[in-house]
Amino acid sequence: MELNEQLRRYRKQNNLTQKDLAQKLNVSDKTVSSWETGRTYPDISLLINLSSILKVSLDEFLKGDIKTVNKIDKDLKLKIVYKKWLIVAVIFMTMVFGEFIFLSTYQYKNVLVDRFNPLLQEKIGYATIPTEESASESDYTKVSLGKNKTKKVLGSPYKNMVVTDNAWGDSMFLSFYGGLSPKNKSYAMVKHRGIYVSRINFIDWETIPRSIRNNMYKDYSEYRDMYQMWRESKSKGNDSAIFTVQTGKY
User: Fold this and answer.
1) At what angle do helices 66-105 and 44-53 cross, to 10 degrees?
2) What is the CA radius of gyration of the chain?
3) N or C: which end of the chain has fewer CB within 10 A?
4) How far apart (Å, rounded) are the C-alpha atoms in residues 109 and 115?
């Protein structure tokens, strides 16, 4: 006997109307009617409840209806597969969203993060760098030569250089290695992603695009106190790594 016929039979044996049974299962009477006509069938959890309400074992309830049993078994397996894929999809989306939040939050704060951050565009900027003529004591780095001997070197690294990226004067403080610049090339073309610098070239003033040069100072001494001023502005709530340099030359 098929499941729909079994359902109708046991419902009547228990003196229940379709509406009575529907109320006990928290479904509509149209749903029960659909089961009894064979258009649809209850899922496994409802079958267990039906077995209890109609006072018949699940084996007896499903006995003889191999077709419906196979359908229920197939649907149950598909639900398990869908559930696993849903879990995988949720985990994947959580990881992607978490990575997006992480990369958005920590950009311009860590060199390694910026190096591999796809949210940051690679840029070419330009910087005026100190020379032996314009450098102060703080621009030099002490390098150990062994046996308690040290040497002061310039450009290892160039620390907190103002790198201007475009004609609007958008700039950042970047540190990079380069060593002592050649004579007449006291400027650097800087390839960077965020605060990660991948490459520099020493260049002369005329090599810098004029539109960017208009918002740069030719003399490094003009930049000397900028980093300290920027640090002080950050302590007052200015958390942006990008700032504007405008020299008034247009």
Assistant:
1) 130
2) 37
3) C
4) 11
User: What would the pLDDT profile of 203-237 be if each residue is shown by its tens digit?
Assistant: 999 999 999 999 999 999 999 889 998 888 887 77
Cis peptide before 182 (omega within 30 of 0): no
Phi, psi (degrees; rounded to nearest 5) at 163: -110, 120
Q: What is the pLDDT of residues 124-162, one digit of tens each?
A: 999 999 998 888 888 888 888 777 888 888 898 999 999
**Could you give the CA distance from residue 34 to residue 45 in angstroms, rounded to a whole number?**
17
Number of residues in the chain: 250
Taking the CA atoms of residue 196, residue 200, residue 203 and residue 205 in that order, the dihedral angle to the nearest 10 degrees is: 0
Q: Cβ neighbours of residue 76 under 8 Å, at least 6 residues apart? A: 44
Which 3 state secondary structure label does DSSP give 11?
A: helix
* Helix/strand/coil for 143: strand
Alpha-carbon span 162 to 174, nearest angstrom:
7
- Specify the pTM: 0.65
- Distance of alpha carbon 239 from alpha carbon 105, whole angstroms: 12
Bridging pattern class, strands 196-203 and 187-193: antiparallel
Residue 102, H or E segment: helix 66-105
Quick one: the chain helix, strand, coil %, rounded to 5?
A: 45, 20, 35
| CA dist., res. 136 & res. 156, Å (int) | 14
For residue 165, what are its two tokens?
């990226």
